[in-house]
Specification:
The complex is a heterodimer of chains A (532) and B (461). Chain A is α/β, with parallel strands linked by helices and 532 residues long. Chain A is built from 20 helices and 8 strands. In chain A, the strands form 2 sheets. A 5-stranded parallel β-sheet of chain A has the order 5-4-6-7-8, with helices on both faces. A two-stranded parallel ribbon of chain A has the order 1-2. In chain A, helix 17 links the parallel strand 6 and strand 7. In chain A, helix 7 packs parallel to helix 13. The longest helix of chain A is centred in the N-terminal third of the chain and has 37 residues. The N terminus of chain A is likely disordered. Chain B is an alpha/beta fold and 461 residues long. Helices cover 52% and strands 11% of the residues of chain B. In chain B, the strands form 3 sheets. In chain B, strands 2-3-1-4-5-6 form a 6-stranded mixed β-sheet, with helices on both faces. In chain B, strand 2 and strand 3 form a beta hairpin. The longest helix of chain B is centred in the middle third of the chain and has 35 residues. The radius of gyration of chain B is 29 Å and the shape is elongated. About 16% of the residues of chain B have low confidence. Classes of the chains: A alpha/beta (532), B alpha/beta (461). Strand 3 of chain A pairs antiparallel with strand 2 of chain B.
Amino acid sequence: MAMRAWTTPSLALLSEGRIAAQQTQSGKVTPARRLLAEALRYDEAAQGPPPAAAESVAMTRARAAPASGDKTRSLEQKIVVRAETLADGRLRDEIARMWSALRAIAIVAVVIAAIVGAATARTVMAGAATGSVDGTTVNFYWALASLLGLHVLAFLVWLGLIIAMPGSTQGGLLGALIFWLWRQFAGHIATGRERAAAAAAMVTVWGQGRPGRWLISMLSHGIWTGYLVGALLMTFALLSAQRFNFVWETTILDAGAYVALTAALAALPALLGLAMPNRAAVLAAEWPGPVAAGNEGLWSTLLIAAILLYGVLPRLLAVVTCFVLARRAASATPLDLSRPGFARLVPLLSPTVTVTKIVDPAASAPVPPAAAPNLHQPPSPPTAGPVYVLGWEIDAPESGWPPGTGAEHLHDLGLVDGRDDLARAIAALRQAAPTPARVVVVVALPQTPDHGTTKTLQELREASNDRLFILFSGEATLRRRIGASDAEIRIADWVSAAARAGILPAQMVAIDLDTPDAAAAARLARLVGRSP
Amino acid sequence: MNTRLDIAVIGHTNAGKTSLMRTLTRRRDFGEVSAHPATTRHVEMAELALGSETVLRLFDTPGFEDSSGLLAHIEALKTARDEDWIEAIEAFVATPDLQAGFAQEAKALGQVLSSAVLLYVIDARDPVRAKHRDELELLGRCARPVLPVLNFVAPGPGNEVGHEQAWRQQLARVNMHAVVSFDTVVYNQADELTLYGKIATLADRFAPILTRLIDELTAARAAQRRASAVMVAELIVDIAAARRPYKADDEAAKTAAAADLKNAIRRREQQAVTALLELNRFGSADYAPPELPIAGGAWQEDLFDPLVLERFGFDATKALAAGATAGLAIDLMTGGLTLGAAALTGAAVGFAIDSVRRYGGRLVALATGMAEMTVDAPTLKLVIDRETALVSALLRRGHGAQSPIATAPFDGTALQERVAPLTHQARRHPNWSSLAESPRTPAARATLVTRIADAVESALS
C-alpha cells in the first residue's frame, strides 16, 4: 500500500516526457517542453543545424508564437515552439525511453531496498542482533534502533545539508547513486545520436541545479521508503506468525530512562488512540528478570507504530515534498539562453526584421557601365590657343591649383561647385576670345558620378565646342578608400558618365594631381600644351 | 492609436543608405550594395518588431542624383503653379508627367512624404558641396523632422581627414542641430542608441516605443556578447580536455594519434568560428581570402604552424604536443591540490573514488605501455587569443561592412593569466571534452565554462 503511494507521484513525474510528446501547442513552458528543446539543442550540436527549409518553417512558427510575459519568457517560448516543430519522433521516443530507464532503475532499487529492509527485520527479530537473548525473546529498543537508527541518522544528515547548504545540489547519497547508475546505464546504451542527446538533456534539465537536488532527494527518500516498508511488512509477518517476548536490558542506565523513552515514543501513537505500554509494563519487561506475560500485544503495537510513524511516514512525506519541490524548481528554471545552441537563435527570434519587401519597384534596369579606355595614355597636345581649366566639385589638389602652371595661355576658371558657379564658368567660356583651344575639367574619382555630373559635363562640353578634356584626379585616394576592385568599378562609372555627356574616350585622362609621378606630370604637360 | 513609426532613409546617391539599413536591421543580405551609384533603384522596406508587434518600419530609397537640378525643377513648378513648397513637392510626386527625368528622386520624395521621420545619410568622407546644400534645402521644404546621419566617420585608409566638422557646421547653418555619427562599417552600439534617442526627441509621440527598442537592443547586445564568450569558453574546455591514447612505443600510432587530435581540434575550432559568425549574424561570405587570417570562415593559418604561434607572441620551440608524462605530472600536482581542497569540504571520499578511477586508470595505462596525446599550452593560448580577437572584431563590425573581417592586434596577456589556471581543470577531465568518446557535461563543467566565459567577456573591448 505504502509502496503504491510512493510510486504514484514519482511515476507521474517520470512519465512527463511522454506527456510532452503529445503537447505541441504553445502555452506555458513546462519542464517537459524545455527537456525537448534541450535534447534538440544537443542533437543539433552533434549533427549540425537542421536543413534550411525545415529551419525556416520552424522559425516562422516560432516567431508566430504568442508572446507571453517578459522578453526572456517569450524568447524561451519561441525556442520551445521551434524545437517542437523540428524534433522528430525518434528524439521524443528517446526522451520517453530515458524516463523509462530512470523509472525502471528507481523501481528496481526500491524493490531491492524493500528486500534488504525485510531481511534486516528478520535478522533483528531472530534475535541475532540482541546478543544475549534467545530466539523468541527480543531486546525491544535494540531491535528498534537496528531497524530505524540508520534511517533516522541519514534523514537528519539530509535535513542538515538541505538547511545548511541551500545552494548545494547535494540531494542524498542513495539518490545520487541511482542517478549515477542511470547515467552509467544511459552512457552505455546511449549509442545513437538521439539517445545521447536525450540523456544529456535529462542531466541538464533534471540532473543539476535545484531541480536536480530535489529529484535526487526524492529518489533517496523513495529508496528509504522501500527499505522501511519492507522492514514493516516483515515485522508484521513475523509478529503475526511467531511469538516474541519483548524485553529490555541495561548495564549502566536505570529503569526511569526506559520509562521516559517509552513514554516519548508512545506519545504519537497514543494520540492516534493506540494502546501503548505504560510504566508498569516497562518495569515488568526488564531482562533478566521475571518478565510478565500479557504485554506482547502492547509492545508489538509500539514496534509497528514506531516503524510506521517514525520511518515510513516521514520518508513518504519527504518523497511527496521533494516531488512537489522538484516540479516547482524545474518549472521555475528557464532554459539557459546563453548556451551556444540557443544563443544562436536569440538574434533570429528577438526584435528583428520580420519582413523586407520592395514597395516601389524600379522602372528600368540599371545601365551597365562602358569598358574603361586606357586613361594613362598621353593625350594629344592642344592646338594653338588658350587652354581653360576648371575643377568640378573638387577641393584644391595637394600639388596646388591650377594644374599645369607655367603653360602659355593657361586660363584658370577656378573651382566650380553648384549651378551659379557653373553658369558663370559657362558664360566665361562662351565669351572667351579667342575661343578656347581646349577646356580641361578636373574631377575627383573618390566622388560618385551622378546624373548631375553628367548634365554638368554635357553643358561644359557644349560650351567648349567639343574641345573638352576630362581629367580624373585622386586615383590613389580612391584605391586606398574602397580597394582595388571597387576602384575599377568607380573609374568605369566615371567613364560612363563622361561618355553619356558626349566626351570621347580620347578626351579622358587620369592624372593624380595629389601625388603626380613623372608619367602623370608628362601627361599633364601635354594636356595643357606646356613644353616639358 | 497608431504607434508604428515609419522612417525614410534618404541621401545622395552612394552615401551608404543601404549599408545603414543593413546595420540597423543586422541583415547583411538586405538590398544590394556596390560602388556603383544608384545601386538601389526601388524603395525597400524592413520591419522591426518588438515581440510580435511591428514598431518600426525603415524604408530604403534611391539616392538623389541631380539635386541641384531637382531643386531648380521643383522651384520652377512651384512658381508656375503658384503653390507653396509642400504643394509643389506633392504634385511632383503624384504626377509622373511633372517628373521630367527625376523619376528616381520622385520615388525617394514620395517615401519622404509618407514617413514620419527622415534619416539623411551623409558620406562624411566627402566635403559639403552645393548639391548637398540643395538637398538640405529641399528636405527642409518637406515639413518632416530630419536626422542627419554622418556615415563613414571612423578614420580609415583613404579617409585620413574626413569632413565631419564641416558637415556639422553646414547642418547647423540649416537648423539641423540634432546630428548623429553612425558608422555603418565600424559598429558602435552607443551611436545606434543615440540615433534612436534623437529620433525620439524629434518625434516625441514615438518616444515610448523607441525607449522599448533601446532597452531591447541593449539587452540583445549584452546577450550576444555573453553568448559569444560562452562559445569561446566551450571551445577552450573542449580543446583543453581533449586526449587521444596511443601505444607509447609505437611511433606510427603516436603520429596517428597526434594527427587525429589535430584534426578533431581543427574541426572543433572551425565549428566555433562558424557558430560565432552565425550568432553575430555574419557569414562565410564576409571573408575574402587574400587579406585574412580566416578564409571562407576557416582560419587560413594552420593552428599548429609555429609561425602562427610566433605571430601571437608564443614560444614556437615549445609547439609540440605534450606527451603523457608531462600531462600526468600536471595532473598529480594539481590533483594533489584538489585533494586538499576536497578534504576540507568533506568530500574526500567522493574524490578518492574519482581519482582512483582517473589516475589509477592512467597509471595502469602507462604501465601497460599506453600514453595520451593532449594539446600543448601554446596552441591552447593561441586559440584563446584569436577567438577572443575574432569576437571583438565581430562585435565592432557593422552589417553594412563589405570588406573582409580583419582581427585587430589583440593583447591577451591579462586574459591568459585568468584563463590558464582554469584550463588546467579542464585538462584533468578528458570526458568534459565534446571531442571525447563519451562526453559528459556535469555541473562542474558548466561552472568552469561560466568562469572562462567571464574572463573572455571581460577581455572584449
